[in-house]
Amino acid sequence: MRAPRSATVNHQFHRHLERLGMPSMRFHDLRHTCASLLVSQGVDLRVVIQTLGHSQISLTANTYTHLRQAIQQEAAERIDAVLSAG
User: What is the pLDDT along the chain (86 residues), one digit of tens a residue?
Assistant: First the structure.
């Protein structure tokens, strides 16, 4: 009897992590990392929810609020620098 496809993917994923000397993580963590990187780079939240397949923007917004707040803080600091320079 063959292993389920998800078991094979997980096995291969963990094998590659070990080979690369990386810490163990869940395959699902790649999805969270992708979303975190997209949000931290200022990608529109609607694009992120489409990428993740979330059905409601509130789920994505609530999960990644801390990253969005950091982006908003950086934007405020940039506009402050522009206004203070003149």
Answer: 566 676 888 899 999 999 999 999 998 899 889 998 998 888 988 999 999 888 888 888 888 877 778 888 888 999 999 999 86
CB under 8 A, 24+ apart: contacts of 38-44: 39/64, 39/67, 39/68, 39/71, 40/67, 40/70, 40/71, 42/71
Q: 23 by DSSP, 3-state: which?
A: coil
Domain spans in the chain, listed from the N-terminal domain onward? 5-85
Q: Is residue 25 classed as helix, strand or coil in its secondary structure?
A: coil
What integer pLDDT is reported at residue 67 of this predicted model? 78
Six-digit token string for 46? 């609607």
Q: How many residues in total does the chain contain?
A: 86
Residue 51 token pair:
């990428």
State how far the Cα of 14 lies from the Cα of 16, in Å rounded to an integer.
Answer: 5
